[in-house]
Amino acid sequence: MGIFKDKIAIVTGSASGIGRAVSEGLAAAGARVVMADLNEKLLKEAVAAIVKSGFSAQAAPLDVREFSAVKKLVDDTVAERGRLDYLFNNAGISIMGEAQLFDYGDWKDLLDVNLIGVVNGVHAAYPIMVKQGFGHIVNTGSLAGLIPTPGEVSYVASKYAVVGLSNALRIEGRDLGVKVSVVCPGLIDTPIKDNNKLINMDRAKVMHLVPKMMPAQQCAKIILRGVEKNQAIILVTGLTKLFWALQRISPALVRYIWLRNMRTFRDLVKPTSR
Predict the structure, then answer these.
(1) Among 2-11, 32-41, 122-131, 265-274, whose mean pLDDT is lowest?
(2) What is the distance between the terminal CA atoms of the chain, rounded to a whole angstrom?
(3) Which of 86, 104, 126, 155 is an active site residue?
(4) DSSP letters along 130-168, please?
(5) Cα separation of 186 and 13, whole Å?
(6) Mean pLDDT over all residues of the chain?
(7) Quick one: which of 181, 162, 187 has its CA closest to 223?
(8) Could you tell me if residue 274 is inside a domain?
(9) Torsions phi, psi of 169, nearest 5?
(10) Do residues 274 and 101 lie in contact, with contact meaning Cβ atoms separated by under 8 Å?
(11) Are 9 and 21 in contact (CB under 8 A)?
């Protein structure tokens, strides 16, 4: 992955999970990584581990919901390093439950991080990359941004938007020298499985329904290979590839499969009304 050597990269949501693994992969490939996250304690630990291994990383506490903070990070990075080669908009949260049980705040909290956080990153970095004449924006979508996954409707809404934004921006940026990719992972073993919000659900029962997850480090390798190849949509896990193919062949079949899954989900998890 020689293309990353001496490149300047910002990775949001990098204190743990996919973001941390991507940061580690970039740093090991010779990039100078600015790691941004809201969790300052975990962020410092992640950066310290990379630096201890002899690679380049620095911590940047950040709330991606705040555009002024995102813009300052991007501007400061460019001022200090002279350019920005990569922006990985990776920060995200998850809320599971039936939409009928959501509070309005559940919608807003998730969309503010998963969608507006990406918009903030794009709005801060894209004009700079256009002016430079080069750069690569990598947004983290999901399998849930490709197929209609019940039980996490707000998450689906955010990730469909991220996938659409990324694909359209890729077209706009093509003749301006800016590349855009969207990552669509399936089930990845990250802390989000333990700390995402569940609405009227038993976590143990939910996890019992989840098949084996891919390690975050393996996911990061696939992501960085996809970025190296400038893939428009970087599919991660066999399940993602299978469902993406089915969605294009027969959307009705995918809806039927998920309807059956939803009925099983309701029977085993037994969400109750408020």
Answers:
(1) 265-274
(2) 51
(3) 155
(4) HHHT-EEEEEE--GGGTS--TT-HHHHHHHHHHHHHHHH
(5) 17
(6) 93
(7) 181
(8) no
(9) -65, -30
(10) yes
(11) no
Residue range(s) defining the domain that contains residue 107: 2-269
Structure-token pair, residue 214: 């891919």
What's the CATH code of the domain at 211?
A: 3.40.50.720
Is residue 6 a part of any domain in this protein?
Answer: yes
- Look at residue 173 and tell me if it is in a domain: yes
Number of structural domains in the chain: 1
Give the tens place of pLDDT for each residue, 180-215.
999 999 999 888 777 788 887 777 777 666 778 999
- Measured distance CA(208)–CA(25) in Å, rounded: 31
Whole-structure pTM value: 0.93
Structure tokens that stand for 169 in this block: 């921006």
In Å, the largest CA–CA distance within the chain is 56
**pLDDT reading at 236 higher than 90:** yes
Q: How confident is the model over 86-124, as pLDDT tens digits?
A: 999 999 999 988 899 999 999 999 999 999 999 999 999
- Dihedrals phi, psi of 187, to nearest 5 degrees: -85, 110
3-state SS assignment for residue 182: strand
Asked if 160 is an active-site residue, the reply is no
Which tokens is 213 given? 């997850």
- DSSP state at residue 112: I
The residue type found at 156 is: V
Give domain status of residue 203, yes or no: yes
Q: Rounded to an integer, what distance in angstroms lies between the CA atom of residue 216 and that of residue 251?
A: 29
Q: Which residue in 25, 34, 18 sits closest to 74, CA to CA?
A: 34
Cα 102–Cα 105–Cα 110 angle in degrees, nearest 5? 90
Closest CA to 148 of 229, 26, 255, 39: 255
